[in-house]
Each structure stands twice: as C-alpha cells, then as structure tokens.
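lol ok so funny story. i was supposed to be doing the assay writeup but got distracted and ended up predicting the structure for this chain instead. priorities right. anyway since i did it might as well share w the group, maybe its usefull for someone
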Amino acid sequence: MSFLNYAPGATPLDPDAVSGLLPDLSSQAELNEFEAVNILVATRWAMGRRCRLRRNHPTDDGLRELHRRMFNETWKWAGTFRTTGTNIGVPVYQIATQLRNLCENVRTQIEHKAYPWPELAVRFHRDLVWIHPFPNGNGRHARLAADLLLVYNQQPRFTWGQSTLVAESAARQEYLAALREADAGSYERLLRFARS
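and the output, tada:
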C-alpha cells in the first residue's frame, strides 16, 4: 500500500499492520473515507440507548470493543493492541496494565468529582492518546471515548475544532500543539480546542 500518506504527527503503520487492510483501496483519500464511514456506524452504535458501554464506561474491554467497532470493516486487527513500538505510547508490554489503570483512575475521579466534566474528559483523552494502545486510529478513538464519557454522564460532547483531524490542516496543527501542552501538564489549550 504505497498510497499511505501520513499527516504530520500521525503514527506510521508497520508492514504487518498495513497488511491487515480489509477493503481494496487505492488512495489515502479512499482509506480516510472508508474509515470515516466505519467510525460513523460505530458512533451510532455507541450513542444508542442500549449500548452496553454505557454501564461502566470507561473499561479496558469496552475501549477495545469501541476500537473494534470503529475499524472492523477497515482493519483485520481492529480492537487488538499494537505489538510493535511506535514514536508515541507506552512500551507494548505495558499497554494492558496502563489502560486498565487509566480506566480505574477515571472511574475514581468521577466518583470523587475530582475535576469538572470537561476537564476530566480532556485528561482522559490525553492519557488514552499517550498510552497509544492500537496500531492506528488512537486519536479518533480517544476523542470518541472522551465524548462518550461526557454523553453517558448527561454532558454535552466536544466539537474538536469541528474537524475530523485526519488530514493536515490548521485544526490538526492546533490539536497536536494542545496535546503537547497537555503532555507537559497544561490542559487549558486542549480544553479550548475540544470545545471549539
């Protein structure tokens, strides 16, 4: 798949992950469109009243199921943890533990009202991106997971710059800059972006 063109800040796929593409596509634009439709279907499922994720979101199993549903028509490995190192993320052997710890921490923060809802959601988003559990789609997955955290708790979902953030754009540049500031401990810019 020589047509893959990674936007700045995107994690390149290793050859094994690339070989897991399910549809026969011939351009990055086709891949982006195919993934977008897959994600839309998953979003409708996750927002449904009967979605089982609502019961105790977030859980590590629920986050894996969410990723699987977001990319199951696109990638064979949808919902499975990455098996190789990347330019971002925890070492492979720490993914499961870090993800479980993140979910437990967020549920504790909810119980103790540690942060206002929007801040709690952007902190969850940033930490999920930082763990980087999957070969691809981590940002989109983390944004939807944060939105679900809000919606499942009767809060308005974020707008994320009103952009998909997949292709190179001013919105994507702002998002990545806001993530870097959050990595350094300042969440204000990411919170402003999430609400823009």
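The mean pLDDT is 93. The chain has one domain: 15-195.
back to the writeup now i swear
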